[in-house]
Amino acid sequence: MAFQDLPIKRKVTTVIMLTTLSVLLLSSSAFVIYDSGSHRQMVLSNLSTRAAILAGQSVSALASQDARRADELFGALRVDPHLMAAALYDAQGRLLAHFPRQAPANSFPATPGTPGSSFQNSEIMIFEPVMRGNVRLGTVFLSSEPRPFYQRFHVYVAMVLAVFAGSVLMALLLSHGLQRRITGPILALASTARAVSESTDFSVRAPKSGEDELGTLSDAFNHMLERIAQAEAAGSFLAAIVQSSDAAIIGKDLEGRIVSWNAGAERLFGYSAAEMVGGPIATIISPERPDEEERILQEVRQGSIRYYETVRVRKDGTPIELSLITSPIRESQGRIIGVSSIARDITELKRAERESYESRARLEGIIGSAMDAIISVDEQQRITLFNSAAERMFRCSAHEALGQPLDRFIPALFRETHRQHLREFGAKGTTSRAMGHLQPLSGVRADGEEFPIEASISQIAVGGQKIYTVILRDITERKQAEDQIRQLNADLERRVQERTAELTAANLELEAFAYSVAHDLRAPLRHIDAFAKILHEEFMAALPAEAQRYIGNIHQGSRYMSQLVDDLLNLARIGRQPLNRRLIPLNDLVQEVVGSLKDELEGRSIQWKLQPLPTVQCDPGLMKIVFANLLGNSIKYTRPRSPAIIEAGTVEFKGQQAIFVRDNGVGFNMKYADKLFGVFHRLHRAEEFEGTGVGLATVERIIRKHGGCIWAEAAVDKGAVFYFTLP
């Protein structure tokens, strides 16, 4: 009989016996093996110790090659009955002495072996080197019989067998008693299960058997009986699942009356279960779908499971779109007794679908009404989209173009280049490339006419396939217009050059005239000033006071006119003077200008705030004039201030560095700022501040000559700041 078919009592007894015997056999074997190994190691250790002692005693005999002394040492070994043989070898491996003495020399190893111990031919053999310091004098050889080892092993095996036999008997007696305690509760549990199975009386309980695993098994069995007894409560558990569902789950009979209404239905439709159970489902049916419920009931009576997308009405009258699954409810015999409906709100989903559809419709409308040709091709470059503008551009209907290769509308000369461009574009993974980023292209109409086009391209992946969309624009008219513009630009450039030459010549003539006039005025001015000086020096005492005042006015006016002539000459000279650009540190230039103005600084309290200035390419002489005029003006117009504050530095202006000169002087009204850089234009009276009105015009001419610009910001009595840029 197989083990699985044995009664539980015999199974338990068998398991206990096998377990006990296996443990006992394993323990006994381990003990015998361990003891054998330990005893063997002890025998080897003792023999090794004896060999080491003998080696130490043999040092002098080997050193003097005294065979008699060696024989005496080895003769003492006869007291060990287990020692079979011993020998002493010198450093050259020759046999010096041996034991037993009467044994022939050839019965010993011819040469000493490797130091250490070993079992060979039922003997324990040891070779021990004889050392004096680091010098090896020879080798000691010992051989012992292993008989004591085997005798001890046999004794232990006999003891183990005796203990094993006694243990088997004891295990048999104990297993007979223990199996009753173990199998008793199991048999009682099996008896209870049989009684329940035969009588279907789930009130029967298995007896309590303790706190061990069998007791746990009994408790679990009794608990299972309680659960079975509560089978009718399982319906409430199922109802709880239905109630906790997020979907609306509604049960109806075959007449359409509501039998169950879960919490999901309450949330979805706004009606409580008390309001709906027992009432007709028509309460939530849309008036626009009066016959839908009857059709659903008819299909359920036929046993069909259906999916619908429909509309229902909430308690507040709001229509909601639903996904509805209806299936028949069957009793245990399979007869259909009702309808199960599971509904989910898809209002937002349907709205999104409608928006998507409308978006697609708008996109199709945009594509259809686009002024540019829009063509889509698949990976094989077959046309999948051909809008109305493309039809007009290529003079080919969409019906004829769809499915055709795009090469049909590309001149033969450019087809291979086009294919290569498309392959490279697809391989790079770039999603789009705008118009103007492709090389100039040409198209060919259905009637063979070639024309220039401009294109943009994009790619998307749909269902694992790439779709390329090209937007094309016929630029024939633009090309013609560009040609006309180029011709007009050429004409305009020619006219500008001619006009520039005329203006340059006029400016040169004007500057020459101004220089000539200013130069010619010098002699009369010198005469006037000289005659006024003679009158003042020789006839002053004879002249009345009013005449003396007139002579002073003449002298002052001539000096002012002389200064004005000098300024005009400088201004004219700047216009005619070529630029001598060099790399100049502006800080050094400013320090030089400030040093040259020291006469004007005498008796003044001035705070200089000179920030680091850049090193620029400029004409140092002309740039010195710029700073001399700007710093000189700051010194002049801060005369009423104590202390006067004059600054020079740089600021950021429209992405480039601007240099400024700022003061806390009298300032000016910004509405007159457009007159600052005009010749002879002054914003202050000569009685207040001296000057000819040419200085700022000179500064503006120098900055403009360098390719920069200059401007000013100020307020009355709040100072002024002049900015200029240099390329």
Structure, described:
This protein is of the alpha+beta class and 727 residues long. 49% of the residues lie in helices and 22% in strands. The strands form 5 sheets. Strands 11, 12, 13, 14, 15 and 16 form a 6-stranded antiparallel sheet that branches. Strand 15 (450-462) and strand 16 (465-474) form a beta hairpin.
Contiguous low-pLDDT stretches (5 residues minimum) are none
Strand composition percent: 15-25%
Calculate Rg over CA atoms. 62 Å
> Percentage of helical residues?
40-55%
How many strands, what sense, and barrel or not for the largest sheet?
Answer: 6 strands, antiparallel
What is the end-to-end distance? Answer: 112 Å
Helix vs. strand class? alpha+beta
Please tally the β strands and state the result.
23
What would the principal axes of the Cα set say about the shape?
Answer: flat
Q: Mean pLDDT score, rounded?
A: 78
* Helical run tally: 19
How are the SSEs placed, and which strands pair?
Layout: H1 8-57, H2 59-64, H3 67-75, E1 83-90, E2 95-99, E3 116-120, E4 123-132, E5 135-144, H4 147-199, H5 213-229, H6 234-244, E6 248-253, E7 258-261, H7 263-269, H8 273-276, H9 292-301, E8 306-313, E9 319-330, E10 336-345, H10 347-369, E11 373-377, E12 383-386, H11 388-394, H12 398-401, H13 415-428, E13 432-433, E14 441-444, E15 450-462, E16 465-474, H14 476-538, H15 545-576, E17 582-585, H16 586-596, H17 598-601, E18 606-610, E19 615-618, H18 620-637, E20 644-653, E21 656-663, H19 695-705, E22 710-714, E23 720-725
Parallel strand pairs: 18-20
Antiparallel strand pairs: 1-2, 1-5, 3-4, 4-5, 6-7, 6-10, 8-9, 9-10, 11-12, 11-16, 13-15, 14-15, 15-16, 17-19, 20-21, 21-23, 22-23
Helix pairs in contact: 1-4, 4-5, 14-15, 15-19, 16-18, 18-19
